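Good morning,

Attaching, inline, the backbone tokens for the sequence recovery test we're adding to the shared suite. The designed sequence is right after.
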């Protein structure tokens, strides 16, 4: 699905897959945000990318965190020569696998990446027509990051598993579902702080790691998300 002229959603529930993968077609090649889970999802996302002639141009994969449903296919792109980026505090999980990537929960072997580069808050990538800024959002994992992209005149915030959203009656309300909090390095306080940080941003598009994207008053949704998180994790 095309989100803007150069930004695509290439995996997720609209294609029958659990986690979202986004592709941005830049002057310096195609960059992916997350890489999806296992064989089935990889096949599906490559089919979608073929429709848009993106499949052979992937030069970089930016992971939001190391959990298997987002990082499980990163090794395939590393093998093909793409640069893999991940929050520096999730880098060991990506290179070692095991409990930190939820190998047992997903019941499948995690293929590690040995040459990923660690990114940290404030790192900035310029792809010519597209820019990407790293924002540390620890909580869901120790090294979780969001990516704030500017592309096609839009500000797009990729949030990984920070939260997902769904609609509700009767007033077309948005229900925020904070990301799963059962991981071995989940930190409730850091998570709430990360929500507070994100609500200072005002993206036109929010692109989560699961569920649907949001287009509209991004800051309004981020403020609502921060309130939801505060209530959920109040001690
Ligand atoms: Zn996760």
């Amino acid at each position: 699905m095309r989100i803007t002229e150069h930004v695509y959603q290439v995996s997720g529930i609209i294609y029958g897959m659990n986690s979202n993968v986004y592709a941005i077609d830049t002057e310096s090649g195609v960059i992916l945000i997350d890489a999806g889970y296992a064989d089935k999802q990889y096949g599906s996302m490559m089919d979608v990318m073929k429709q848009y002639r993106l499949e052979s141009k992937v030069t970089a994969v930016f992971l939001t965190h190391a959990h298997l449903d987002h990082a499980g296919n990163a090794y395939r792109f590393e093998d093909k020569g793409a640069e893999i980026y991940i929050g520096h505090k999730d880098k060991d999980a990506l290179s070692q696998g095991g409990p930190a990537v939820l190998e047992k929960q997903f019941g499948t072997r995690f293929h590690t990446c040995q040459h990923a580069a660690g990114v940290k808050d404030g790192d900035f990538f310029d792809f010519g027509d597209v820019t990407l800024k790293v924002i540390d959002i620890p909580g869901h994992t120790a090294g979780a990051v969001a990516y704030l992209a500017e592309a096609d005149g839009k500000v797009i915030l990729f949030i990984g598993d920070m939260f997902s959203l769904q609609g509700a009656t009767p007033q077309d309300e948005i229900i925020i579902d904070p990301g799963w909090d059962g991981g071995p390095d989940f930190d409730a306080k850091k998570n709430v702080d990360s929500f507070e940080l994100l609500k200072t941003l005002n993206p036109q598009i929010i692109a989560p790691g699961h569920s649907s994207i949001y287009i509209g008053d991004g800051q309004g949704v981020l403020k609502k998300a921060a309130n939801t998180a505060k209530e959920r994790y109040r001690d």
